[in-house]
Amino acid sequence: MENEKGASSSTFKMGNSAQERSLPYVPDCYVVPSSYEPRDALDSSSESVPTIDISSLKGSDDERRGVIQELRLACQYFGFFQIVNHGIDQSILDDALAVAKGFFELPAKEKKKFMSNDVYAPVRYTTSLKDGLDKIQFWRIFLKHYAHPLHRWIHLWPQNPPEYREKMGKFCEAVRVLSLEIMEAITESLGLGRQYLSSRMDKNGMQVMAVNCYPPCPDPKTALGLPPHSDYSCITILLQNLTGLEIFDLTAHGGSGRWVHVPEVKGVLKVHIGDHVEVLSNGLYKSVIHKVTLNEEKTRISLASLHSLGMDDKMSVPSQLVNDENPVRYRESSFNDFLDFLVKNDISQGERFIDTLRIKD
């Protein structure tokens, strides 16, 4: 077989990607240049990241006030926190990871039924970020599907593995309930009250599942699973089976920042603050920049549940957070606006949706 090491990104489209074929080397188009992502200059730390006992939200008034304060600080300084005692049974988490793994182990012809480069499609299977269109390819395979309301979308999901719809559906429903509780706490922490977004997210909100697979990489120091980016969503709730997630701590090293390795603890869920909460807070809370590193021996599976307002429902800065000292700092935008941005821009080159929303002085 001819060595494809120097081949272009278009050579490795879905169904033929290096990660799907388990190539024993990293093709050049997957190599992340040091000038683009200078890993040697960034400090990855295993220091603890904020961990919040979310059950305290249902405790006494004092307990709730305490956890709201913890959440406020985590959103303000990290844009990220882990949650424990979230109330989702471990079997639901384990089953969802198992059926996700089972899907990626299916024969190629089964997965190809869902292949699509259409970012507007409610269900699609592809690779990297935009399947051969990115200047740099990423060692990732993923299935994305809409998940709320579940009855509207579940019939479009994979029927194989046979329990995929049932097990993934239970996970989606449980995580969505949790997301509403967390969003109530976030709006309360901003002084907007618990119900500020509740009806908009509950009845018409979007839930998008990104079911990710990062196969073993023969040279994990040269490639990435995902480049540094932030999520468009209000929040993203993440479940993973292995480490690999790193977040960028903007406050470290006198403001120059550093990468922080997020440890994996069974049963603990990760919460990313997304671009739309940064807009909601008028910049008080920051959407977390994060990336995915790779493993040479093991496959990493992650389930990212992204929660936002409805497809065309625009997030804007609340009037309650605007005054002479704090003018509106962001333009309003919707999930559909993000999809339009994704079509026209290359996230692999560091382009961020949130940057297009900031109003310059």
From TrEMBL:
Keywords for this protein: Cytoplasm, Iron, Metal-binding, Nucleus, Oxidoreductase
The protein depicted here goes by the name: Fe2OG dioxygenase domain-containing protein
Q: Where in the cell is it found?
A: Cytoplasm; Nucleus
| Residue segments, region Disordered | 37-59
Could you tell me what this protein does? Answer: Involved in the regulation of shoot development and salicylic acid (SA) homeostasis.
Domain Fe2OG dioxygenase: from-to ranges: 202-309
Would I find Cytoplasm among this entry's keywords? Answer: yes
| Xref: InterPro entries | DIOX_N, IPNS-like_FE2OG_OXY, IPNS-like_sf, Oxoglu/Fe-dep_dioxygenase_dom, Plant_2OG-oxidoreductases
Iron listed as a keyword: yes
Gene Ontology molecular function: metal ion binding; oxidoreductase activity
Among the entry's GO cellular component annotations, what is one? cytoplasm
- Location (main, coarse): cytoplasm
Which ranges are annotated Polar residues under compositional bias? Answer: 43-58
Q: Which family does it belong to?
A: Belongs to the iron/ascorbate-dependent oxidoreductase family.
- One Pfam family linked to the record: DIOX_N
